[in-house]
Task: inverse folding
């Protein structure tokens, strides 16, 4: 699928400010879409479509506290804390291939169970972080494509 088509589809549920950190948005504005992985966008769209409920990634633009749960950049505190001249840090968030999110009214475990239930509808294999409380992490760095969902 063409990236512009994917972006137009996902805009039904998400604005760019919800998917990137404030630093990236302040620098690139609506052009920030270019940094997000198309497979991630298609997967997030599919989850949101089947779920039928809002998904909260970032809410910094609405005065909320979540600002580093989508695409992160080198200026973000989470990244700065994990990097140094001696340590390499490359996360799926830095590559535009991951989001952390929550669904109001559902626990993280309920959301993970739901995603597992609709796994055959997911357009691409994903990884899901297990045992997180308060958020769900999904990313596109599944190195076992024969498995639709890999828990890590």
Result:
């Amino acid at each position: 699928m063409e990236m512009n088509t994917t972006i137009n589809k996902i805009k039904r549920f998400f604005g760019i400010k919800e998917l990137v950190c404030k630093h990236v948005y302040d620098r690139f504005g609506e052009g920030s879409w270019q940094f997000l992985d198309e497979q991630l966008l298609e997967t997030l769209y599919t989850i949101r479509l089947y779920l039928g409920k809002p998904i909260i990634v970032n809410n910094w633009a609405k005065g909320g506290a979540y600002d580093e749960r989508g695409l992160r950049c080198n200026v973000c505190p989470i990244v700065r804390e994990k990097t140094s001249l001696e340590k390499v840090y490359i996360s799926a968030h830095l590559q535009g291939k991951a989001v952390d999110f929550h669904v109001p009214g559902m626990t993280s475990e309920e959301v993970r169970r739901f995603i597992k239930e609709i796994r055959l509808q997911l357009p691409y294999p994903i990884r899901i972080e297990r045992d997180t409380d308060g958020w769900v992490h999904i990313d596109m760095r599944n190195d076992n494509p024969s498995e639709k969902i890999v828990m890590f």
Residues 131 and 150 are 13 Å apart (CA to CA). The first helix runs from residue 3 to 10. The mean pLDDT is 95. The two ends are 28 Å apart (CA to CA).
